[in-house]
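Justification of computing resources. Each target in the renewal requires a structure prediction run like the one illustrated here; the chain below, 75 residues long, is used simply to show the kind of job we budget for.
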Amino acid sequence: MNEANSRLIWSYIQEAGGMLVGKLPPSKHHPSGRNPYAHVAICVKKKFGKSYKEIPDEMFHDVIEYINFLVENPS
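Resulting structure tokens:
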């Protein structure tokens, strides 16, 4: 992904993480609470098989739509 799109995605991940603060269900793996910012970044990497910086520019809108899905469906 080019640098401009990469920055936009990172900003969107941060914004989504902020919206998920306190909304993720508890996890036995995170007794101190879950990090919603890391959750979004990890989910993107898991879904697309690459970090957000490595995803092709052509998939920019797919990544944004997926992040929106994560915000609407905290898990």
